[in-house]
Amino acid sequence: MNRIILILCVLGLLSGCSTHAPTMQGVKSYCRSFSTESSCDVQGDLCEQYSAVLLKDYSSAAECRAGCESVQKQYDNQMGLQNCLPIFEAVGDKCNEYCDGNYE
User: Fold this and answer.
1) Euclidean distance between the first and final Cα of the chain, in Å?
2) How far does CA 3 lie from the centroid of its chain?
3) For residue 92, which of 76, 71, 64 has the smallest C-alpha distance?
4) 44, 57, 64, 66: which sits with the fewest CB atoms below 10 Å from its CB?
5) Residue closest to 87 by CA, chosen among 51, 48, 33
6) Comparing C-alpha atoms, which of 100, 104, 93 is closest to residue 27?
7) Secretion signal: which residues (predicted)?
8) Can you say whether the dihedral through the CA atoms of 24, 49, 63, 75 is positive or negative?
């Protein structure tokens, strides 16, 4: 009986894991729902920039990732965005994950 419960628990935990690439809508939703500092006021603009990048067609994952990196570079030069660093890193990673999963 304990073995069955253990197996069910493991299967339940694994059911939440997925090897599927995030969708474009998933990246956008992730960006919009990301909790930021109250002094980070660029979240909406950032999410729109990433959405614009993901709407384009690319010939490779590297080209797509370059698009993701271009969003980061646009904001790198702006001072006072230290409170926004967590969202830049998290959504940048999610954008790259989208590229890696949807392009070769």
Assistant:
1) 46
2) 37
3) 71
4) 57
5) 33
6) 93
7) 1-21
8) negative
Residue with tokens 């930021």: 36
Which tens digits make up the pLDDT trace of 22-58?
A: 787 888 889 888 887 777 888 888 999 999 999 999 9
| Side chain identity at residue 14, one-letter code | L
47 within 8 A of 91, measured Cβ to Cβ: yes
CA separation for the pair 99, 67 (Å, rounded):
9
How many beta carbons lie within 10 A of that of residue 55, not counting itself? 9
